[in-house]
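Entry type: protein chain
Record version: 2
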Amino acid sequence: DRVDFYGDYFRIIDYKSGNAEATLSELYYGKKLQLFLYSLAIKNATNKKLSGTFYLPIKNVVNKADNDENIYRLLGFYTNDNDLIEAYDTNLCPNTKSEFVNMSLKKDGTLKKTDKVLSPSEIERLLNYSKDLSISALNNIKCGKFKASPLKSDSMHNACTYCPYLALCSKASNNIPFRETNKVDINSFGGTNEQL
């Protein structure tokens, strides 16, 4: 893992050999809190602002063409501050897509809006949500609350699909239902979505 500083900002990069996609849904359901919790620690220690949280997929391929376009590209969430664009990719020009970051520019040179491009207040909401969810989990652990509530992501996969302890688990014998996932967007984290 790595932290980069740029002026009053910092970004966090986590190197991943497995699934490196970051989604609002995974954060909302508590599956990928790590980068936002790291970010809170860095923010509190340095008083700097978070510019982005990223996964960097590391694959064992010889030729970039042998794999998908995201190989060796930072995948994650970042602030919509156009002044930071050059810090991410000095070669990024209007109406192009970055080779290094999941970032694209419109014809006017501003960032193309996706669910990965967030305002500073939206990033704050994600940081606060991660903190609150972690505190809630910690309090439940302290109280001995370990209720089985596996997450079902789609009709083919759930939290139990690849679990090596499935034979020992009481989920099947106790008929414990899966938690269903719903569509998640930035509004799921409280507050209102700001327009760019």
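Comment: Confidence is low (pLDDT under 50) at residues 192-196.
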